Amino acid sequence: MIQIGEYVIDPAQPEGQLILGGAGLVVLVLLLLVLTIRASARSARMAAPLARQMAMMGETLRALGQGQEQLRGGLQQVSDTQANAQVQLIQTVEARLSHVQQQMSDRLAGVQQNMADRLADNAMRSSRALTEMHEKMNASLSGASKQTVTSLTRLQERLAVIDKAQDNITKLSGDVLGLQDILSNKQTRGAFGEIQLNDIVSKALPAGSYTLQATLSNGRRADCLIHLPNPPGPIAIDSKFPLEAYEAIRAAHGPAEAKAAAQGFRAAVRAHIKAISEKYILDGETADGALMFLPSEAVYAELHANFPEVVREGFAARVWIVSPTTCMATLNTMRAILKDARMREQAGAIRRELGLLHKDVERLGDRVENLDRHFHQASRDISEIKISADKAGRRAQRLDNFDFEDIAPEAPDLKLSPAGAEPAEPAE
Hints:
The termini are far apart. The chain is α/β, with parallel strands linked by helices. Helix 1 crosses helix 2 and helix 4 runs antiparallel to helix 5. Strands 3-4-5-6-7 form a 5-stranded mixed sheet, sandwiched between helices. The protein has a two-stranded antiparallel sheet with strand order 1-2. Among the domains are: about 1-130; about 185-355. The protein has helices at about 15-40, 45-185, 185-205, 245-250, 255-280, 295-305, 310-315, 325-345, 345-400, and strands spanning about 1-5, 5-10, 210-215, 220-225, 235-240, 290-295, 320.
């Protein structure tokens, strides 16, 4: 900003730039004038042109003065316009501020009212929520107390069940101990195997197809004798239970004990195979093989898993080793064989019954033909009866419509046939 007296010149405004340009031009003219005066001393020939230039410069200075006056007036007008604009702007801003303040006051009042309404609504909701929560808590406490009572009742019932189960476990422990006592004695262990064998055989085979504790011709008694047809013939089943040798294998510690226990188990099974082969396989009386029943699946699995040579020796001696599971399968096969044998035994009777049935069917056909013939004759008789009934009806109708005063002697319908005969009628 440049201040000259009471005027302030702003170089950023066009008027200020014009004033500064005029001032610079005046300074330039003055410098030229000075240079010209200095040059006039050196050259007289240039005096006239310099005078003309001075005249022109004077005119230019006058024009510059007039421009400065016009510029001064324009600056004054611009200053007044800016002052008026500032006053209008201030008034407009004040009016807008007043309007905004009024709007803000109205909005603030509305917001305060909304806040008050919301606070009241929230208070009511909180009150209702607290009431509902109180009711729910009461209901929950009531339900929880009922559930607690129910849970306690169920707990007592379960405790009673647990007590009963404990009694059962105690009883089962006694049964296990009793089973151990049974299995520890060879005689009772043999009886256990026989009972299990009897149960399996009685469930798999029909009664009469087997004999328990059957005595053979050599005086030996087999636990069970299955009466199969020839071939193969009756087959014996004997129960063996080498439990002590098996338990020795399970309880062995170290390779030496395991080897000794295996040898003992192998020797025990071989002894049983030999005894069954010699006692229960008799030529002409029993089949050429027998079954050795092992009442324990564990012993059977141990034998087939680790002693296959003993199993092969049993096959060679025609003694087949079975467990409860495989014994049931074998007995089911024997049951099919027995059923097939009985079917063959009954084949002749079935043929005779079929012949008699064929004769009965033929006789039934003859009787049906006779009955059909009788029905046909009866139908024909009924048809003739209907014809006679129709004739009698027509004759009765004619007699009912007949006028005796108008009887003509030659009327053919009044001629009587011989006594007891119907009047002759025209052929129909």
